[in-house]
Amino acid sequence: ACACACACACVCFVESRCSLSMHCILQGISVISAVGLLVEDSIMRGTNGTAPEAGVDIEPDNPSSILVDVVFRRCQFIDNNGCGVQMNIGNLEHDVDAPMSILFEDCDVSWRDDYPFESPWYDGAGYLVGAGKTAGSVTVRGGTVKGSAGAGIEINSKHLSGPTVTFADVTLIN
After folding, report:
1. Which of 94, 100, 168, 169 has the most CB atoms around its CB within 10 Å?
2. HEC profile for the chain?
3. pTM above 0.90, yes or no
């Protein structure tokens, strides 16, 4: 059975893996709370219509959400109208949650040269990490960001007590 994660019901999780997600309205995948999520060899493409319009949006909706062992490996986030990968983790509480662990490994974020960014809310950052207060880590290892309208990597409103954020061996193009 599928557990669909976007308004257009185009993402299905099968044995903790994700299939192709194309032309969703809100985002390709929403992660609100997860333990042991593995998404491999998947494509999130063409999200457009309702903010945040990201390829993946990791955004807990309350302090009791947890993000432990969340892994995206060899995924592609292509021509999404918002960020390729957006992590707004401000709702997690440092003294409530287990230390979070999020890993993006060998993932590519890209937009074609003539992509017409239309979102008034987001600037098309490759990776956006915002407002983290809880302990743990966000790691992006390997992969590329190409053709973003905004920053290739954007970190904002991160608290000193928040997670360690590491980018290693990531190639930024234009």
Report:
1. 100
2. CCCCCCCCCCCCEECCEECCEECCCCEEEEECCEECCEEECCEEECCCCCCCCEEEEECCCCCCCCEECEEEECCEEECCCCCCEEEECCCCCCCCCCCEEEEEECCEEECCCCCCCCCCCCCCCCEEEECCCCCEEEEEECCEEECCCCCCEEEECCCCCCCEEEEECCEEEC
3. no
